[in-house]
Amino acid sequence: MNSRITLKEIVVLAMISALMGVVFTGIDSIYEPLTALAGPFGGAIIYGVYLISALIGMYIVRKPGAGLIGSLFTGVINLLMGSPYGIHIIVASTLQGLGVEIPMFLGKYKKFNLLQMSIGAVLAMILVTIRDYFVFGFGMYGSLMPAIFAVRTISSIVFGAGLTIVIGKALLSTGVLNGFKIAAKSGE
After folding, report:
1. What secondary structure letter does DSSP report for 112?
2. Rounded distance between C-alpha atoms, residue 20 and residue 135, angstroms
3. CATH code where residue 111 lies
4. pTM of the predicted model as reported, rounded to 2 decimal places
5. Domain range for residue 147?
6. For 43-57, 61-75, 133-147, which range has the lowest pLDDT when averaged over its residues?
7. Taking Cα atoms as reference points, which of 76, 101, 106, 110 lies closest to residue 91?
8. Which residues of 152-185 are buried (b: 16+ CB within 10 A; e: fewer)?
9. Residue 2: inside a domain, yes or no?
């Protein structure tokens, strides 16, 4: 089994990540008004969508580094497109990528079902939420943090892991992912 990422896989990761960077720029324009209207719960509801860039790369390529590479490519594109979060988007991208990589590494990159993808999504969310607590002042929410954390967790599973699997399977059905590990259907 070859666990090294090929040039073809890097190109596909870059293309998907570029698209995700554009999508995230649009989502940024929704996230801020939602947060203004509903406080931290507004952004927490759609938070899981931000995890797709790390999850989709891992779900398709299924090799060490795919989640981190996909997430970082997306972060760079989002930054270049004027992300309101500046360089913090690269920090978040790194944390998300690592969060997805850790459970896949521990599982030896063999399972990519909803449970395994959800574990990666939730770990990625936890890492970014810790950063948000210290960098973006989430500590001021005090007793609301458990509820914010719960909403982010649900969003990470539904919009992060769940939507990633739906998108991955849809792309697979087109035949565009033939030759990728996802096409072997191992670990479903």
Report:
1. -
2. 24
3. 1.10.1760
4. 0.91
5. 7-184
6. 133-147
7. 76
8. bbbbbbebbbbbbbebbeebbeeeebeebbbeee
9. no
Each residue of 53-62: b (16+ CB within 10 Å) or e? Answer: bbbbbbbbbb
Residue 153 lies in a domain: yes
The 3-state secondary structure of 27-51, one letter per residue:
HHHHHHHHHHHHCHHHHHHHHHHHH
Residue given tokens 């939730």 in the structure block: 122
Residue type, 70: G
67-111 residue pLDDT tens: 999 999 999 998 998 888 889 999 999 999 999 999 999 999 999
Give the separation between CA 130 and CA 124, rounded to whole angstroms.
10
Q: Which of 67, 69, 58 is nearest to 181 (CA)?
A: 58
Domain annotation covers residue 1: no
